[in-house]
UniProtKB/TrEMBL annotation:
The lineage of its organism: Eukaryota, Fungi, Dikarya, Basidiomycota, Agaricomycotina. It comes from Rhizoctonia solani. This is Ricin B lectin domain-containing protein. InterPro entries: Ricin_B-like_lectins, Ricin_B_lectin. Residues 5-69 form the Ricin B lectin domain. It comes from the Eukaryota.
């Protein structure tokens, strides 16, 4: 089953936290336990679109910023940025990505 572009809430498969962009203007992206409180709904949703070559872009619905890394090395932090980054999303046999 191919990955379908659309609007998603993205969870870390290991920690089951949902990626969330900070609302303080710093555009830091981190994982938070989804509580379904009103303050979370705004920055939890991401538009996933095809970027070509089997890659996708992830754009935060509320901020309009793209998911990006703050450096080229392992363990770099995730941030929201106006720089468009492409991501490989691997779909597992159970349908999760």
């Amino acid at each position: 089953m191919p990955i379908t572009p659309g609007r998603y809430r993205i969870k870390n498969a290991a920690t089951w936290t949902t990626i969330d962009e900070s609302t303080d203007g710093a555009h830091i992206v981190h994982g938070w336990k989804q509580t379904n409180q009103p303050n979370q709904h705004t920055f939890l949703e991401w538009d996933v679109a095809r970027a070509g070559g089997g890659t996708f872009t992830l754009k935060n619905v509320a901020s309009g910023m793209f998911l990006h890394t703050d450096g080229p090395c392992n363990y770099s932090k995730l941030v929201g940025s106006d720089i468009v980054s492409s991501w490989y999303l691997e779909q597992r046999p159970n349908g999760s990505v």
